[in-house]
Amino acid sequence: xxxxxxxxxxxxxxxHGVPFRHRRMVRFxxxxxxxxxxxxxxxxxxxxxxxxWRRLGARVIAVEPQPDCLRVLRLxxxxxxGVVVLPVAAGAACGQAxxxxxxxxxxxxxxxxxxxxxxxxxxxxxxxxxxxxxxVDVVTLDDLILRYGTPAFCKIxxxxxxxxxxxxxxxxxxALSFEYLPPAHDAALAALAEMERLRAGGYRYNYAPVETxxxxxxxxxxxxxxxxxxxxxxxxxxxxxxxASLHSGVCSLSN
Length: 255
What we know:
The chain is α/β, with parallel strands linked by helices. Helices cover 35% and strands 21% of the residues. It is globular, with a radius of gyration of 17 Å.
């Protein structure tokens, strides 16, 4: 119990306790979200993006299957009518799946056994243990769109399960992001392939390293160019997020 409390407390401190982080997020996400928009936070964890998105006037659909994280989300945002907290995971099809939990480091809990096997050999994950699991309900992005409308922006951070989440989407979204982790490089390429399926090359991409809220490229890139950029960051061991936009003119490089 103490380990669980410490793990979730560390996540709250990490994502809500950094000075000026909220301000940077508001500036960064303003290019994607505005008043009246809907934002999907897939893998909301403890809701680090929610305050910035709400500040921008967006309604937030927070999808999170981890019980401990759900308690935090409901405590922080349960009285906000503009935030919907859903105790489910997202995937390629509706049903149920087993979520592997890391009690001490809940940020790396995952539905993907392949992803866990990939990162478990990386020195950065040497102390991580997936020591328990829970059965969770799974919905698709298409289901969420039918219920809540098309999001102006969708953040997907689900520890190697990004491609499966995107496989549950049958229409292109205006903009979205998914996580990139160097030890799981192939998982990001699989997610990129799903993006290209959705729009047949119509998306343009950029990359923001490790919560910097700054794009690595001065212009939006085609899929092949993004792949080469990720190959550059791969040996550096720097994680981050891939951003995709159908309207690449939204990019503000002065964040």
